[in-house]
UniProtKB/TrEMBL annotation:
Annotated spans, Disordered: 181-204
Record-linked PROSITE patterns: AA_TRNA_LIGASE_I (PS00178)
Family designation: Belongs to the class-I aminoacyl-tRNA synthetase family.
GO MF assignments: ATP binding; tryptophan-tRNA ligase activity
A Pfam entry, by short name: tRNA-synt_1b
Keyword vocabulary terms for this entry: Aminoacyl-tRNA synthetase, ATP-binding, Ligase, Nucleotide-binding, Protein biosynthesis
Name under which the protein is recorded: tryptophan--tRNA ligase
Protein source organism: Manduca sexta
Principal location: mitochondrion
Keyword Translocase: no
Length: 331
């Protein structure tokens, strides 16, 4: 089977963009037989300052939401990134093959570093750690959004450089794009932007923890445009089309079907349909997560077992890599 590797940062409660765009995709890959390794990317989250207590709480919360979303810790391996030291160790080896010029030119780095006064080296290394995350398990496939493709290209280049110098060790990881538009759900307040955890306006996103009444309110307040009909045209009508997209993801249907269903409704009326679809899709996840959060010891056990299984795989690959480099590593 394909070995799929994916990570999510424990930087706050997941929003429906994270859910439809990442978590649910992983669960569906797991359910269709892929070998899924899903990790909580706490090392990545450190590229921006994290309050230690919040980071710890967010890690457990994310664990609960992932389980509630259908990640099966027996079929898949779910763990915290920092509990498998090989991620950081392989990152160092790969960093010695990466060039500053290549990393500093990546659009996402340029964008994020431009907003900072002091730019941490970790931000520059972010794509190298991402490559290590996948390669340390000889991952073959990575579910990504369009904006992450550039980082997968960095991984592919590192694999080529590695092979050239030391021989073939890693498969070149391939992107899995969802093709259903779920990779980029938009902010409910400004549909030109993506829905994001860090947006200062809480009404711009729907959280997986939002009760029905809050979901309804946020959808009602969603920015659309001055045309009352419901159509799907992401370029010229991003706001309404984003609602159509959410409707489709919540009910597993195609935009044509959603638009047909909305015939005769104004966007204001259609918002009620969308809100109700989202409530039905999210309610079971929210309720399961709440029950799981009452049992933190169970969540910790899941993570501990996941880490132990991940370490076995990572040690084997790392030992192979270290040997080829001439490092006298013992596992
Ligand atoms: N708007 C989105 N639509 C679809 N998918 C999205 N993802 C994020 N935003 C959207 C996907 O969710 C996963 C979460 O990755 P992350 O935890 O590394 O967070 P992120 O990419 O930084 O996105 P956030 O959660 O919105 O945070 P900020 O505020 O930093 O932008 C990824 O697979 C991502 O593609």
């Amino acid at each position: 089977p394909r070995r799929v590797v994916s990570g999510l940062q424990p930087t706050g409660t997941l929003h429906i963009g994270n859910y439809f765009g990442a978590v649910r995709r992983c669960v569906r890959l797991q359910d269709s037989g892929d070998d899924l390794m899903l990790f909580i990317a706490d090392l990545h989250s450190l590229t921006t300052h994290q309050d230690p207590d919040s980071l710890h709480a967010n890690t457990l919360e994310l664990t609960a939401y992932l389980l509630a979303s259908g990640v099966d810790p027996e079929r898949s391996i779910m763990f915290v990134q920092s509990s498998v030291a090989r991620h950081a160790e392989l990152c160092w080896l790969l960093a010695c093959l990466a060039t500053n010029a290549r990393l500093a030119h990546l659009p996402q780095y340029k964008e994020k570093s431009a907003k900072m006064k002091e730019v941490p080296i970790g931000l520059l290394l972010y794509p190298v750690l991402q490559a290590a995350d996948v390669l340390v398990y000889r991952g073959t496939h990575v579910p990504v959004g369009i904006d992450q493709l550039q980082h997968l290209q960095v991984a592919a280049q590192l694999v080529r450089t590695f092979h050239h110098r030391y021989g073939r060790v890693f498969p070149t990881p391939q992107a899995i794009l969802s093709g259903d538009g779920s990779e980029r759900l938009r902010s409910l307040r400004d549909p030109t932007k993506k829905m994001s955890k860090s947006d200062s306006d809480p009404k711009s996103r729907i959280l997986l923890s939002d009760p029905d009444s809050v979901i309804e309110l946020k959808v009602r307040k969603a920015v659309t445009d001055f045309t009352p009909q419901v159509t799907f045209d992401p370029e010229s009508r991003p706001g309404v089309s984003n609602l159509v997209m959410l409707h489709c993801l919540a009910e597993d249907k195609l935009p044509e079907e959603a638009v047909e269903e909305a015939e005769g409704l104004t966007t204001a009326q259609y918002k009620r349909v969308v809100a109700s679809a989202l409530c039905s899709a999210i309610r079971p996840v929210r309720e399961r997560a709440a029950r799981l959060l009452e049992r933190p010891a169970v969540l910790r056990d899941v993570l501990r077992l996941g880490a132990a299984r991940a370490r076995v795989r990572a040690d084997e690959v790392y030992e192979d890599v270290a040997t080829r480099l001439g490092l006298s590593a013992t596992v």
